[in-house]
Design a protein that fits this description.
Layout (H helix, E strand, L loop, with lengths): L10 E4 L6 E8 L4 E8 L2 E8 L1 H19 L12 H17 L5
């Protein structure tokens, strides 16, 4: 049996439900991938290997979901528009900034 050392750059989050469940995220720079694995007790129940673009998409969706959780459910939108509309506006502003020539 081969023992694989626990990578120093691996992150683990335990489930809020408990039940010995966790999610681990491990970057694999040599392969250009990120592994998200799902654990129950000390056994891996499944993994997903993501490209950088897929990981970025996941982070964006998690961010949008968190923003939705942080907003009051009964109060009107502070900035006007839905989270998706506000995110789209921010993305448009970023694209504009990125396309401008840098100052000399």
């Amino acid at each position: 049996m081969t023992v694989v050392p626990f990578p120093a750059d691996r992150w683990t989050w335990e489930s809020a439900r408990g039940l010995s469940r966790a999610v681990r995220v491990t970057p694999h720079a040599e392969a250009g991938l990120l592994t998200v694995s799902f654990w129950r007790d000390d056994r891996c129940a499944g993994t997903v290997r993501l490209t950088p673009a897929e990981a970025a998409s996941l982070v964006g969706r998690l961010t949008a979901a968190l923003a939705g959780l942080a907003e009051p459910r009964t109060a009107p939108e502070a900035g006007g528009g839905s989270v998706e509309e506000r995110l789209a506006a921010v993305e448009r502003r970023l694209r504009t900034l990125e396309s401008e020539d840098p100052p000399a």
